[in-house]
Amino acid sequence: MPLKIATCQFSVDRNIDRNLRFMLRQMNQARVEGAHVAHFSECALSGYAGIEFPSFRTFNWDKLAAATRTVCQEAARLGLWTIFGSAHRLTGRHKPHNCLYIVNEHGKLVDRFDKLYCTGDRTQRSGDLLHYSPGDHFSVFTIRGIRCGVLICHDFRYPELYREYRRRGVNLVFHAFHNGHVPDHRYRAIQQTMPLQKLNHGSTIWGITVPPTLQGHAASNAMWISANNTSARESAWSSFFVRPDGLITGRLVRNRTGILFSTLNPRRKFYDASIHWRNRAMQGTYHSGKLVKDTRSAARTKW
Fold first, then answer.
1. Are 141 and 3 in contact, with CB atoms under 8 Å apart?
2. What is the predicted pLDDT for the residue at 188?
3. Is 107 helix (H, G, I), strand (E, B) or coil?
4. Of the four listed, 9, 68, 76, 105, which is most buried by Cβ atoms within 10 Å?
5. What is the mean pLDDT of residues 10-23?
6. What is the rounded distance in angstroms from the CA atom of residue 258 to the CA atom of residue 260?
7. DSSP letters of 178-238?
8. Please, are residues 161 and 155 in contact by the beta-carbon 8 Å criterion?
């Protein structure tokens, strides 16, 4: 069965009530347009610690819990799968998870994915690791017969994660990003130091590298990918959707609120150069066809 996806983009903020209003509005718009699932960005409901607010020290967890319940209730009312970024509180002094909640069309939380590769170094005093605890699991679920998985932002740097989802039979990955709220002066400074802009699409390292990396992941693993981002100025790139041959089928406008609608037809066939040997490669056999035993093949230092 075809699956219609609403890849949602808005300006994520520290104000949970404001984020919630955007989400509810876009959920309703998604359902009106016939979408089966609404996909929101990293930290869409909670806001991003270290970006939208300095730390979780005075964070209003009760407000976040109430807003989360509201999203689940609205998902049930609309009959809409909803995947959204937030923060998941842990006990004691443990830092929360940077997570994606996966809510089905009945408003039930079917799983929670926690960002595996939080940014930062081994001291855990920089980047995400200053504020968040990394996760330890993959999340696989099925929507209208389509096997799905999820990833968050910096996870895109690790092709092993996409390969593992391929091993688990995943056909569609919802990849939620948050690369925005960069002050205008800093964004312009980054642009000025970026070389080779004429040879690359984009004007920052993130805008240049993220889309083609996901296109490569899609083509290498024969997967669909819904990739969204916050639209908070300055945002490094806009949300987009990739099909299994690596081609981008749609893209929103950077720094502007919007929804990208994409329809996944599981019966449609795409060019897949690796289809005959991908599974064997994943099992550790790194060649196609049948190897030959030949002295000239074995003599690798002779002409």
1. no
2. 82
3. coil
4. 9
5. 98
6. 7
7. ------HHHHHHHHHH---GGGSSSSSHHHHHHHHHHHHHHHHHT-EEEEE---PSSPSS-
8. yes
Residue by residue, DSSP assigns 267-294 as T-----TTTTTHHHHHTT---SS-----
Per-residue pLDDT at 69 exceeds 90: yes
Q: What does the block give as tokens for 69?
A: 């319940």
Q: Is the pLDDT of residue 267 over 90?
A: yes
Instruction: Report the amino acid identity of residue 200.
Output: N
Q: What order of strands is seen across the sheet that includes strand 248-251?
A: 140-143, 146-152, 172-176, 224-228, 240-242, 248-251
CB 228 within 8 A of CB 39: yes
Radius of gyration of the chain (CA): 21
pTM of the model: 0.96
pLDDT at residue 103 tops 90: yes
Note the CATH architecture for domain 3-276.
4-Layer Sandwich (3.60)
Domain boundaries, given as residue ranges, for the chain: 3-276
| Lookup: tokens for 117 | 């590769």
Question: What pLDDT score does 194 carry?
Answer: 78
Residues 73-87 have pLDDT tens digits of 999 999 999 999 999
Q: Which amino acid is at 177?
A: F
CB distance 80 to 31 below 8 Å: yes
CA quadruple 278, 251, 85, 98: dihedral sign: positive
